[in-house]
Design goal:
Elements lengths: L1 H17 L2 H5 L11 H9 L17 E2 L5 H5 L4 H7 L13 H19 L8 H26 L5 H4 L3 E4 L13 E3 H15 L15 H14 L3 H18 L11 E2 L2 E2 L11 E3 L22 E2 L1 H7 L7 H5 L32 E2 H14 L3 H12 L17 H16 L5 H7 L14 E3 L4 E3 L11 H4 L10
């Protein structure tokens, strides 16, 4: 009798299985193996966003606490944020997660998978496959480059030959693979080669704000050369990017004059539709509506009043972003808990976008033109940019900006105005540290917690590799 029951059960199981072949053909979510071109392309813009918990904005020069150290006493800033703000030698504890290191490395696995396999996709033309292949190579070069901005010495001919930088990760393999740190020169040579070899294959059209197309790739390579101080080499790539932006129409500068509502500027929530994003590395919009007053006390540090006074005129719409003098329509709001002469951005550290924007292209292009003695062209680009940011009638370049050196300084000041309160001045601090034109900027490279004052040193332009990484890569300890 028992044998009969077993036979019946097996028969019923076979019947059930024969009737659910469709179910068995469905692959469990997360276990699909990429086969088609769309699968590989989807891996690129479906990847997680990075730098969502970064400490580097706290290392920028424009931030300060209130006189009583308000942010350190009452905000939710973690120990690693405070260490970064103080430019400590050791920022992270063993149990801290360092997004500047961890997030790019996580993305590199997926990106390398695409590089290794997309040319064998089951569909798509060779040109289509090569476009995705090239895009992935530019992405991995960009992530490697950004890691070098935190954990490698600033590029110059002296440091490039000897200083250790970050590993060059070009495989999706995770077993029996070592990733030694490369030298600064090796990293930059790799980044440039990857990008130069990939640019000819990038598609001309844009599909997604996390995808890389032709003007984006050119802008990225231009930015690499620009960060290296090789302005003449950066110029042609930035020119291609700007010309394409001008002719395209889908990407361009927001005209802040068009954002005025009842005499006050209202910045749109542009998380995924920002026409100024050529390539975004954050899901968060660069500009937020001031809708969350209770959130103010846990956001970025205050922008120094002395910095606002140095860099802004009352006719600059961007001042409204940090002045907090407007109503809830403003992108930034003033904290009711602090003195009226301190300004509090209503935007979180996670909003920092370290991709490439249209504004980046304009201002890098203008600076490269100015540094290459093409001052008339630089003034034209700069005026065009300012007409989208300044009240009509005040966008002209000031009369006292009448030499090549003054024009270069003015372009850099424009970059500071554009990125104020977002932490991106960190990259200019590194790039211009030894530039004779910008030594006076260092007077602002101080922070205070209400008791002590901390000054930035050249050694702190390079972050130490965090302990959580060294645990798994002990060989990094000897050259950290």
């Amino acid at each position: 009798m028992k044998k009969i029951k077993i036979i019946i059960q097996l028969f019923l199981m076979l019947v059930m299985l024969s009737g659910c072949t469709d179910y068995l053909d469905v692959k469990p979510r997360g276990y699909d193996v990429p086969e088609k071109l769309e699968h590989y392309a989807g891996l690129l813009y479906g990847k997680d966003d990075i730098f969502t918990l970064s400490v580097f904005p706290n290392m920028s020069f424009e931030f300060t606490t209130t006189e009583n150290g308000y942010n350190f006493a009452y905000s939710v800033l973690g120990a690693e944020d405070m260490n970064a703000y103080k430019w400590e030698s050791d920022i992270f504890r063993t149990d801290d997660v360092c997004s500047e290191w961890n997030d790019p490395c996580k993305q590199l696995y997926t990106i390398n998978l695409v590089v290794d396999e997309v040319l064998q996709a089951s569909d798509g033309t060779e040109d289509e496959k090569k476009a995705v292949w090239a895009e992935a190579r530019v992405m991995r070069a960009w992530y490697t480059f950004m890691m070098a901005q935190f954990f490698g010495a600033p590029y110059n001919e002296n440091t490039a030959a000897s200083d250790l930088c970050v590993p060059i990760i070009t495989t999706s393999a995770t077993v029996d693979v070592e990733f030694p740190r490369a030298r600064v020169q090796e990293v930059y040579n790799y980044v440039i080669t990857e990008m130069e070899e990939s640019l000819p294959f990038l598609e001309d059209r844009e599909e997604h704000f996390k995808r890389i197309f032709m003007p984006t790739g050119n802008a990225m390579l231009g930015k690499v050369y620009w960060m290296m101080g090789k302005y003449e080499k950066a110029l042609p790539y930035l020119q291609v990017a700007k010309n394409k932006i001008d002719s395209d129409g889908s990407r361009g500068l927001l005209n802040y004059n068009d954002l005025m509502e009842e005499g006050e500027i209202s910045y749109p929530n542009v998380a995924k539709t920002n026409p100024e994003s050529l390539y975004s590395e954050s899901i968060y919009p660069r500009l937020w509506l001031a809708l969350y007053p209770s959130f103010i006390e846990s956001t970025l540090l205050h922008v120094k009043t002395e910095v606002l006074e140095k860099y802004f005129t009352p006719n600059d719409y961007r001042l409204a972003m940090v002045s907090g003098l407007n109503s809830g329509l403003s992108a930034y709001a003033q904290s009711s808990l602090d003195p009226s002469d301190y300004y509090y951005p209503n935007s979180s550290r996670i909003a920092t976008d370290i991709g490439v924007t249209v504004a980046d292209v304009y201002l890098m292009y203008a600076e490269c033109l100015a540094r290459n003695s093409q001052t008339t062209e630089a003034e034209s680009v700069l005026t065009e940019f300012r007409e989208n940011r300044i009240e009509p009638g005040y966008a002209d370049i000031p009369a006292d900006v009448n030499t090549q050196e003054e024009l270069i300084k003015f372009v850099v000041a424009e970059r500071i105005r554009e990125g104020i309160g977002m932490g991106t001045t960190w990259f200019d601090m590194r790039r211009l540290w030894d530039d004779s034109l910008f030594q006076d900027m260092k007077q602002y490279y101080t922070h205070t917690d209400g008791i002590d004052t901390y000054s930035l040193t050249k050694e702190r332009l390079t972050m130490k590799i965090p302990p959580s990484v060294i645990i798994w890569n002990p060989e990094y300890q000897n050259n950290n």
